């Protein structure tokens, strides 16, 4: 069974030594009292919960899966899941980042995110039960009526109830404008909602008393397409005025999907039959309200793959040091043993370091974006909030797509380190690969992310957001320009920055001629910009490591070696990506559809 | 459920229009009577068997898996598998490429391989039952005593019995020199064999009366390491002198592995307790004898991923033409529908064309190598046999590693085309991905393949084999040098040829200093040479397509478009690979083992 050690040292390094998040957070009045010791203590306890309670249930949960009782429509998650959830609630963990007004602890999102990274490492399928709740919480917090907030937020905050997002229908996922679920207004101000939803994560389970569904549906007089979609809150059990549970509502799980991975999460087909709901936000403005959830969910999905990359790395590294097989080509390294540990083989190290560099780079980027989101939400300076918001908007699709694509590569490499054993369930490595695969699909496929980045976030404002972020990179390059020891990191970073500027202009020009050029270049382009952000954070981490390596703490030595690996072996992927992005639309569209 | 259409037209194009395999085969006396019509007719019938008998069992076989009865040690494969195998035997398919002396049909291997491609597309897990037999057949055919051949080959040829390869043990896979299974000589000339083997594909099942295991074990006085390994044939039931079945032998399935994919194939833990076996070949020369199986198996594994790439492509292309979602960025393409079919989106086409170009390129390379193997085995010219043998040796690790890595990329892309549905079992796409994953591992991991290519096959003979193959490429480049229409294919091919020469020399020089440099560069290097071979065959296919496109047959138009896609979007991967291969050993070895 895989092991998991919470990477607290690396989290602290990123938070306190590289990003100085405490100083950043203190600019926000509501976080004025935050300090590093509090953050570290919370994460230490959170890490224990992840490693001791959740990790032991990951393999067994995958093997067992969820069970649906077709008569009661009740779903039973795998053994131990309900008990783990009870501990989660008992520990107060659901409230970590929630609003004190509703019983939350009001800690910064950046702390909650690192806690989630650890839970994702330990058990992605379990973590999706509370994870989806968080989306429902955010959405009601931003758009709910005072009554809705009073009814639902305290229970979501305490974790007594969980939440879902009901968007997808059989015929529409990406294209929500096509959805058909109907909401009919009633005399009492509620709506009766009828339709069929699919792929509803944590849609039904017995771990809590009530499940709060956020449902997209169409009003009778709604305009066609995405401008006619409204958002409703539909509880599994109706809630009486005194807060007690009323009758069972007409929203049922009609089937569970059999999936490649995340077996332990109940992925439900939900049927709504005159289910009673109340409107969230304005009529026909449901998509915008839903996007509050969606952006948080996209960051959350990147975080899932970050967690999987970390845990896959840890287990592969341990195996590579333990498993003996063959001798090094350069001669025996462990002559006292029957063979050398496989970590002596350069390609085994390459696979391990790929995962490590992607995990640590992803952690730096994700932590940076999380603290920026804290500023976007809570800074007392409006300009600062706006600037932070723009930066989060720019970097969200990169976190979603780049980190999940990297997670797929990394977990597959880590599995490969195990040879044939990697393919066998009991070692747990193949589960990381299967679980990682969904992260490239849900909450907007990675192709959708790349269109969002290039089309909307970059070309859509003439590159303004990218330029602002580019200025931060340029300032860092300038600052370190005379630092001899930093040249190996700064030069390729500066070079890639120039190339991104050129490439962006070039694609922008082509897109004037034919907007499909954006679609042809977007996926390659996103990975190029992903590498630019990773190169930036790797250079910043290297700077700190260089300054501190004299301390003798080997943590910094390892950090520097991983940084060098990143620049030597991973960043060069951009050489290909820039060429293929440039190759443009013609080779993709030349073939007639009928000939496929 | 996925559909499968045997790609007969493309097979015929490669065989008869590009490679002229009939002319090549006629140089071999035993294939002097072969003709294109016979080959086409066999493949047409074989395609029907694959599509009509095997394909319908793929999804259900994956869901059901195999069952072991722990008291009888018998394994029951999924429903329908036994009946399908009976049809396979009834149709005479096992005998296709086998020696007429033992009841075989004596058809060229290239025909058998294309038949296997189709069976792999339809059902990789099922196909491994007869597939492993073929390895046992080859090994006994090459190294068995006349008695062993008379006893086993007719039954393996008819398919009445199947075979296995028992190599791996819990503590050794790649490093077979460490194996511990013991063989003790008996007075009657047999051996009693005791030990534990793992990962034995098709190790036990009820589809045939007897299973013939080829087992690596160690004689009592054997030298240590790989020079002390002998090969034995160990039947499940002993065979009486009259050919009837005798007592049950001491070789049992002790457990089935729970795996990521190929669920329907029984991957067995085999226990040998004083199992009676006879020696195959010379004592202590078992590894060499086993390598006859191994090389065939490596080509077979490449062929598995070729099959999966093809079938994944077919289903993704059909889905992309059918599924409507969003509008093209350049405006509606199917205004009469609620949305455009997703094939209008450039990145969907990129994913599809990646799979298509890898399937068609892989088919050309594999077919070329198979017909070359026919020449290596059956040419009446010794020089020709030697030259063919060298070329097969060079290209085998490329087929194994490059085609299986491509298969992983391609099946994952094809699954992505389905969005969320791709993650769901019933669509069948995620099974292709899971099944494809093992192909990168077994029969020598892809890292082992790359070391075999660069270390043994290329640097081991100072590049002689590579130079010979390079001369074929150079001759083609020269020949087409003045053909204007071919420049878009010839120029990048020639350029990559030059780069491979330079890169090979460079790594060779570094390896003199430190042999670990080979290990650091090998995986990237193999993909570079893989692209060189694909570029060569794509250029040859483009040449034929250019010549024939005036016929109006749209097959040639599609071939040319796919060729252009390959050169524009896939070949540029070499830009990165050459850089990372060059980055060498230092970034991999810098970090101390303890810091991982």
Task: Name its key features.
homodimer, about 600 residues, alpha+beta, Butyryl-Coa Dehydrogenase, subunit A, domain 1, Butyryl-CoA Dehydrogenase, subunit A, domain 2, 7-stranded mixed beta sheet, two-stranded antiparallel ribbon, 11 strands, about 55% helix
Number of helices of chain A: 18
Report, as a whole number of angstroms, the end-to-end distance of chain A.
44 Å
In this structure, how is the largest beta sheet of chain A organized?
Answer: 7 strands, mixed
Mean pLDDT of chain A, rounded to whole units?
Answer: 97
User: Largest interface by residue count?
Assistant: A-B, 99 and 99 residues
Fraction in beta strands of chain A: 5-15%
Number of strands of chain A: 11
Rg from alpha-carbon coordinates of chain A: 24 Å
Helix content of chain A: 55-70%
Low-confidence stretches of chain A: none
The secondary-structure class of chain A comes to: alpha+beta
How are helices and strands ordered from N to C of chain A?
HHHHEEHHHEEEEEEEEEHHHHHHHHHHH
Globally, the shape of chain A reads: globular
Oligomeric state of this protein? homodimer
InterPro entries (chains A, B): Acyl-CoA_dh-like_C_dom, Acyl-CoA_Oxase/DH_mid-dom, Acyl-CoA_Oxase/DH_mid-dom_sf, AcylCo_DH-like_C, AcylCo_DH/oxidase_C, AcylCoA_DH/ox_N, AcylCoA_DH/ox_N_sf, AcylCoA_DH/oxidase_NM_dom_sf
Cofactor (chains A, B): FAD
Catalytic activity (chains A, B): 3-(methylsulfanyl)propanoyl-CoA + oxidized [electron-transfer flavoprotein] + H(+) = 3-(methylsulfanyl)acryloyl-CoA + reduced [electron-transfer flavoprotein]
Protein name (chains A, B): 3-methylmercaptopropionyl-CoA dehydrogenase
């Amino acid at each position: 069974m895989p092991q998991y050690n919470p990477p607290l040292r690396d989290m602290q390094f990123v938070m306190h030594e590289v990003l100085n998040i405490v100083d950043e957070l203190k600019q926000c009045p509501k976080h004025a009292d935050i300090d590093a010791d509090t953050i570290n203590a919370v994460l230490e306890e959170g890490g224990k919960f992840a490693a001791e309670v959740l990790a032991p249930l990951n393999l067994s949960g995958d093997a067992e899966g969820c069970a649906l009782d077709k008569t009661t429509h009740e779903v039973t998650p795998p053994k131990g899941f309900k008990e783990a959830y009870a501990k989660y609630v008992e520990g107060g963990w659901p409230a970590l980042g929630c609003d004190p007004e509703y019983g939350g602890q009001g800690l910064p999102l950046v702390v909650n995110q690192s806690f989630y990274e650890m839970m994702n490492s330990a058990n992605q399928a379990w973590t999706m039960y509370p994870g989806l709740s968080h989306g429902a919480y955010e959405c009601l917090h931003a758009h709910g009526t005072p009554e809705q907030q009073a009814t639902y937020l305290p229970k979501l905050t305490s974790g007594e109830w969980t939440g879902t997002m009901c968007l997808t229908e059989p015929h529409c996922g990406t294209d929500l404008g096509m959805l058909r679920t109907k909401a009919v207004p009633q005399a009492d101000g509620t709506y009766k909602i009828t339709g069929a939803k699919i792929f509803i994560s944590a849609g039904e389970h017995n771990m809590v008393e009530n499940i709060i569904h956020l449902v997209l549906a169409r009003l009778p007089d709604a305009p066609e397409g995405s401008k006619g979609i409204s958002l409703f809150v539909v509880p599994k059990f109706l809630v009486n005025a005194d807060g007690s549970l009323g009758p069972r509502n007409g929203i049922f799980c009609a089937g569970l999907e059999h999936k490649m991975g995340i077996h332990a999460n109940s992925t439900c087909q939900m049927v709504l039959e005159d289910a009673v709901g109340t409107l969230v936000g304005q009529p026909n403005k449901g998509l915008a309200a839903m996007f509050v959830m969606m952006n948080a969910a996209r960051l959350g999905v990147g975080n899932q793959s970050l967690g999987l990359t970390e845990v896959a790395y840890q287990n592969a590294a341990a195996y590579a040091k333990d498993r003996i097989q063959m001798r090094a080509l350069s001669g025996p390294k462990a002559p006292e043993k029957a063979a050398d540990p496989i970590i002596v083989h350069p390609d085994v190290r390459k696979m391990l370091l790929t995962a490590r560099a992607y995990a640590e780079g992803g952690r730096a980027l994700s932590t940076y974006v999380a603290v920026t989101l804290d500023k976007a939400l809570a800074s007392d300076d409006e300009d600062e909030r706006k600037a932070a918001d723009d930066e989060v908007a720019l970097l969200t699709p990169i976190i979603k797509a780049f980190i999940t694509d990297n997670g797929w590569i990394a977990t597959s490499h880590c599995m490969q380190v195990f040879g044939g054993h990697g393919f066998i369930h009991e070692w747990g490595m193949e589960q990381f690969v299967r679980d990682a695969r969904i992260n490239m699909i849900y909450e907007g496929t990675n192709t959708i992310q790349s269109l969002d980045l290039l089309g909307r976030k970059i070309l859509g404002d003439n590159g303004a957001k990218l330029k602002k972020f580019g200025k931060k990179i340029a300032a860092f390059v300038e600052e370190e320009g005379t630092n001899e020891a930093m040249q190996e990191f700064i030069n390729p970073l500066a070079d890639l920055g120039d190339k991104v500027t050129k490439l962006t202009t070039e694609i922008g020009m082509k897109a004037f001629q034919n907007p499909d050029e954006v679609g042809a270049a977007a996926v390659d382009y996103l990975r190029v910009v992903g590498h630019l952000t990773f190169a930036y954070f790797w250079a910043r981490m290297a700077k700190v490591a260089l300054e501190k390596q004299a301390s003798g703490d080997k943590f910094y030595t390892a950090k520097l070696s991983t940084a060098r690996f990143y620049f030597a072996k991973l960043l060069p992927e951009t050489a290909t990506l820039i060429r293929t992005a440039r190759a443009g639309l013609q080779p993709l569209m030349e073939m007639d559809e009928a000939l496929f």
